[in-house]
């Protein structure tokens, strides 16, 4: 674990929490070597990441894993793993969190458009709203948050909206 | 100037000197010179990557000069290498762990010091000013990068790589900044900076490792959501504060008295009276804090009025008063500081509902949930809240439901006011009866404890009653929680103040009693001496002092008050622990195990498992703290009891909540600024401050017990200290300061200052609101233009109706309007008050606000240049922010 010292500087972790490595390793002891001096190319598949207790019940777990993984498919190296927990930790500043939250909510392009919103909403409510309701909510959201009136949310719109939210931790 | 003349000479000297030397030396020098350019080229890519266009330009201009300098630098580099080698070898060890966000705090003094160094050693060293400045700039830039790297949304690998590069660069060139005589000092300073940063880092690690119960709270959080966890965080905060108070009280009052004061049994106030000695060790007596408990360090009466104790001449009475006042001072400071910090963090208060749906969509999930059951509840609650909002939105126009709801809310408030009034009357009635009872002796158990029983019953019955009534109001649970808290608070406050008034009555009767007892005591003492000399027939012999157990005592109202508070606290602990044990644990056991043989489903049906009662627990904690604040002056041991209570209840409640409770049906998140709890705490602190300060300032202390006995007022101890221990001019100074002529203007000044600050903040708020309104207007306007519909603004519509020709006028060309709209943008961002730090958003706000609402041309692109984005290379497609083509 030689890189640990440097990773202090890149993450919001303290020494205690750097032990995250062991969490990572516990997910698949047969895959992850203990010795990281040679930077082995190890990736854990999404199935393992998504089954962590922290993410298990989260409706956005797949998106989270995809956003933080380098290959975009949810398979994570140790670095990605650390990245993820660093951003999700309490110490990370709101701006950074807003940035990643934005990435979690959009799909392909760099904007949150209506279809993204619909997907998000369905994940949040487990498809219990009717189509009309979903459409209406999405329209309202865009109506509220879209500052430059292009019918979709850019990062700036999103940040503007979300850093004011009382619930955004 | 001088350098120019020196340079050729230097070169000549060098070459001239090199001739007579032996071949090896020459070879070495040649090698060094040859290797140098290569070395520079190795550095070049790093620098060139970072160098700004400006510096590159300067480079080409200065080319000729630079060739000379390069040679020169070669020499210097060699020299430097020699000097620096030992340090270079040391730094990498630190550099890996050391560099840390704290850098910017240290940086400011670096440039200035190196500047002065470079000025003083200009003649000896030969690095050009420009080179120096540039190098410094780059080093600074790298340092900034190192400090900020954690905020960049980059992949870890990229971060690691950049960090390593930057650190290497800094290590290499930092040493070059200091020169000559100052260099050692500079190196020392750099080293110490690094050491300091490392220390800070380690300290931070240590501190996080020291946060108690972090894991426990996280576990609760993952099961019950953050609202329940917020209670435990509040409990932990409370524990920390009480620990500090405990430290003060025990370190400055209790322990000095125990170690250096007179021992037990030496003077009357430290001895159990003869009449009580038989029962002093009985369990029931001790449980009432009488007997030995009453005459111990736990209570005010035990403390002696000796001016100084022990060899250290510790001024115990003074310290007692100071600790009493300091407790309040510290608590006030802490609560207000925490509130201010919370208000800072809270960002915009979420009162304005501009973003109802957007917030619901993006922030309603509690990322801390790690439990399937809670997650299910959360899904359900999100769905309901969405449905509610939709219904609200749909029925926004039809107001009939609003009326019903308003009516229900008024009704609920009416009912609650009624029940509050009823309980207030009940308490009043009971207090009166108890005063009646106080004169009688033949009391049954119920009559003795009537007041406590009624109060506990009210505390048990009223909160659920309020909760039931609050169902009528149909608020969001977070708002409902606040209302509920406020109502229970009012109830408790009534209880507290009736208790206080009863107590004051008692104190007053004791004070009346005291005068006669004082006379009797002095009389008895005189009689004793007279008897002694009469019996001995020897008026000269000094009689042995009276046995301290036999001296007639005053009632010592301070100790009585202290005992009341300690009793109340202890009974509160018992009640709350028993409630958990019976109300939660027993219920859970019954529901769990009787369910196998019962007619209906106990778990899903009627009794079910208990939910964690956040409001009740928070209020219990707050009021308990109020008791401590009030009682701590009269019973220093109370703080210790409270620390034990908080410690045990942390474990006990954590266990209880995990073992017996189920998550709330409507899981909701605690907002980050839980200033509401803090506000309650502040109110209670103030309310408990009043009676204590009143007693300190007005009531005379008992004549025969406590550290202030023999004084007219408790604060006379300060006057005494000023008169006896401080130089005379201090006394006069204080007397001037205490002059009303000085105090009244000071108070006036403070009031004016408060008024001024208040109005300033109001003005800021107004301008904020104004900007918001403008922004909204601009948005609406733009939206309408986009939709090619009429303006929503009714007035404008009417105007347009009035001017039928207006529609025939061709709209103004859009191009000329753009520049003026974008130009004034950067200026207002600087002058706009109160919203620093959000550069990106601000620019947008202002740009939108300043755009002319009547402008005809469709401004379809968002404001162009933005503040620094999240950094390059964050992902594919960096085109965002450029704005899409108009539809």
TrEMBL record, chain A:
The lineage of its organism: Eukaryota, Metazoa, Chordata, Craniata, Vertebrata. Coiled coil: none annotated. GO terms for molecular function: calcium ion binding; magnesium ion binding. Keywords: Calcium, Magnesium, Metal-binding, Repeat. PANTHER family: CALCIUM AND INTEGRIN BINDING FAMILY MEMBER 2, CALCIUM AND INTEGRIN-BINDING FAMILY MEMBER 3. InterPro entries: CIBP, EF-hand-dom_pair, EF_Hand_1_Ca_BS, EF_hand_dom. CDD domains: EFh. Residues 133-168 form the EF-hand domain. One of its GO terms (biological process) is calcium ion homeostasis. This is Calcium and integrin binding family member 3. It comes from the Eukaryota.
From TrEMBL, chain B:
It comes from the Eukaryota. Keywords: Membrane, Transmembrane, Transmembrane helix. Residues 556-671 form the TMC domain. The chain crosses the membrane at residues 243-264, 318-336, 410-431, 484-504, 627-647, 676-697, 733-757. Residues 38-48, 64-76, 777-788, 815-826 have a biased composition (Basic and acidic residues). GO terms for biological process: cellular response to mechanical stimulus; detection of mechanical stimulus involved in sensory perception of sound; inner ear receptor cell development; lateral line development; vestibular reflex. It is a multi-pass membrane protein. Residues 860-873 have a biased composition (Pro residues). This is Transmembrane channel-like protein. It comes from Haplochromis burtoni (Burton's mouthbrooder).
């Amino acid at each position: 674990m030689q890189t640990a010292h440097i990773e202090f500087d890149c993450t919001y972790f303290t020494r205690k929490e750097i032990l995250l490595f062991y969490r990572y390793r516990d997910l698949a002891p047969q895959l992850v070597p203990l010795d990281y001096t040679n930077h082995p190319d190890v990736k854990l598949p999404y199935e393992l990441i998504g089954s962590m207790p922290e993410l298990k019940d989260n409706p956005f777990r797949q998106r989270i894993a995809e956003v933080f993984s380098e290959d975009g498919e949810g398979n994570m190296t140790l670095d990605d793993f650390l990245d993820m927990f660093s951003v999700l930790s309490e110490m990370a500043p709101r701006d950074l969190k807003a940035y990643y939250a934005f990435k979690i909510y959009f799909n392909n392009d760099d904007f949150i458009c209506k279809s993204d919103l619909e997907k998000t909403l369905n994940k949040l409510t487990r498809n219990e709203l009717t189509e009309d309701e979903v459409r209406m909510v999405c329209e309202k959201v865009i109506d509220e948050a879209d500052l430059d009136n292009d019918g979709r949310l850019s990062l700036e719109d999103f940040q503007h909206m979300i850093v004011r939210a009382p619930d955004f931790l | 100037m001088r350098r120019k003349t020196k340079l050729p000479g230097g070169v000549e000297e060098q070459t001239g000197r090199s001739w007579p030397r032996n071949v090896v030396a020459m070879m070495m020098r040649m090698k060094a010179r040859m290797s140098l350019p290569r070395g520079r080229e190795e550095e070049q890519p790093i620098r060139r990557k970072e160098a700004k266009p400006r510096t590159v330009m300067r480079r080409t201009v200065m080319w000729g000069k630079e060739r000379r300098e390069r040679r020169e630098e070669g020499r210097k580099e060699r020299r430097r290498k020699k000097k620096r080698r030992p340090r270079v070898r040391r730094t990498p060890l630190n550099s890996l762990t050391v560099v840390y966000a704290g850098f910017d705090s240290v940086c400011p003094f670096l440039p200035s010091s190196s500047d002065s160094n470079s000025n003083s050693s200009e003649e000896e060293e030969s690095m050009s000013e420009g080179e120096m400045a540039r190098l410094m700039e780059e080093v600074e830039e790298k340092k900034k990068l190192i400090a900020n790297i954690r905020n960049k949304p980059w992949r870890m690998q990229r971060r690691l790589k950049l960090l390593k590069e930057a650190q290497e660069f800094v290590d290499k060139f930092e040493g070059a900044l200091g020169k000559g005589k100052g260099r050692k000092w500079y190196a020392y300073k750099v080293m110490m900076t690094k050491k300091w940063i490392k220390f800070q880092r380690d300290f931070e690690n240590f501190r996080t490792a020291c946060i108690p119960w972090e894991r426990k709270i996280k576990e609760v959080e993952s099961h019950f959501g953050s609202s329940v966890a917020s209670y435990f965080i509040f409990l932990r905060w409370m524990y920390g504060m009480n620990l500090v108070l405990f430290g003060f009280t025990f370190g400055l009052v209790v322990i000095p008295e125990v170690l250096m004061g007179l021992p037990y049994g030496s003077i009357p106030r430290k001895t159990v009276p003869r009449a009580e000695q038989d029962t002093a060790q009985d369990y029931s007596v001790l449980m009432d804090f009488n007997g030995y408990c009453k005459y111990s360090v736990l209570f005010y009466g035990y403390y002696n009025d000796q001016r100084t104790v022990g060899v250290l001449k510790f001024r115990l009475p003074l310290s007692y008063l100071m600790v009493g006042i300091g407790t309040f001072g510290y608590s006030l400071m802490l609560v207000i500081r925490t509130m201010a910090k919370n208000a800072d963090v809270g960002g915009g208060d979420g009162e304005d509902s501009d973003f109802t749906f957007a917030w619901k969509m993006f922030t309603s999930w509690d990322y801390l949930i790690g439990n399937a059951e809670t997650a299910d509840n959360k899904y359900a609650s999100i769905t309901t809240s969405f449905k509610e909002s939709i219904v609200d939105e749909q029925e926004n126009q039809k107001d009939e439901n609003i009326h019903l709801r308003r009516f229900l809310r008024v009704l609920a408030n009416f009912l609650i006011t009624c029940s509050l009034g009823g309980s207030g009357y009940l308490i009043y009635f009971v207090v009166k009866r108890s005063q009646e009872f106080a004169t009688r002796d033949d009391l049954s158990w119920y009559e003795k404890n009537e007041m406590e029983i009624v109060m506990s019953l009210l505390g048990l019955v009223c909160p659920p009653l309020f909760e039931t009534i609050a169902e009528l109001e149909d608020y969001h649970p977070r708002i409902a929680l606040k209302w509920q808290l406020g109502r229970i608070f009012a109830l408790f406050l009534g209880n507290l103040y009736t208790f206080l008034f009863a107590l004051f009555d008692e104190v007053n009767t004791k004070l009346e009693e005291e005068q006669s007892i004082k006379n009797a005591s002095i009389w008895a003492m005189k009689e004793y001496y007279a008897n002694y000399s009469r019996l001995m027939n020897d008026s000269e012999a000094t009689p042995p002092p009276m046995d301290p157990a036999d001296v007639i005592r005053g009632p010592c109202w301070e100790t009585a008050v202290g005992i009341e508070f300690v009793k109340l606290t202890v009974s509160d602990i018992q009640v709350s622990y028993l409630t958990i044990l019976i109300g939660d644990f027993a219920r859970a056991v019954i529901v769990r195990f009787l369910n196998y043989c019962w007619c209906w489903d106990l778990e899903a049906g009627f009794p079910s498992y208990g939910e964690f009662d956040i409001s009740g627990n928070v209020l219990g904690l707050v009021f308990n703290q109020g008791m401590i604040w009030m009682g701590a002056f009269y019973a220093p041991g109370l703080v210790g009891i409270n620390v034990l209570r908080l410690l045990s209840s942390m474990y006990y409640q954590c266990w209880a909540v995990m073992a017996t409770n189920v998550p709330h049906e409507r899981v909701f998140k605690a907002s980050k600024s839980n200033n509401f709890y803090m506000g309650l705490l502040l109110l209670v602190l103030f309310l408990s401050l009043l009676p204590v300060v009143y007693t300190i300032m007005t009531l005379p202390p008992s004549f025969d017990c406590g550290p202030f006995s023999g004084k007219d007022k408790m604060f006379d101890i300060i006057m005494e200290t000023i008169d006896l221990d401080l130089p005379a001019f201090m006394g006069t100074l204080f007397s001037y300061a205490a002059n009303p002529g000085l105090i009244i203007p000071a108070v006036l000044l403070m009031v004016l200052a408060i008024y001024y600050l208040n109005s300033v903040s109001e003005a800021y708020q107004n301008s904020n609101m104004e900007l918001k309104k403008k922004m909204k207007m601009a948005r609406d306007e733009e939206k309408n233009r986009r939709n090619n519909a009429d303006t929503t603004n009714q007035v404008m519509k009417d105007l347009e109706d009035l001017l039928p020709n207006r529609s025939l006028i061709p709209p103004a060309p859009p191009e000329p309007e753009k520049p003026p709209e974008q130009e004034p943008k950067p200026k207002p961002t600087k002058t706009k008050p109160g919203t620093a730090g959000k550069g990106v958003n601000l620019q947008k706000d202002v740009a939108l606000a300043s755009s002319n609402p009547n402008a005809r041309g469709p401004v379809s692109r968002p404001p162009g240049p933005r503040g620094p984005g999240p950094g390059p290379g964050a992902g594919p497609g960096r085109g965002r922010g450029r704005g899409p083509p108009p539809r």
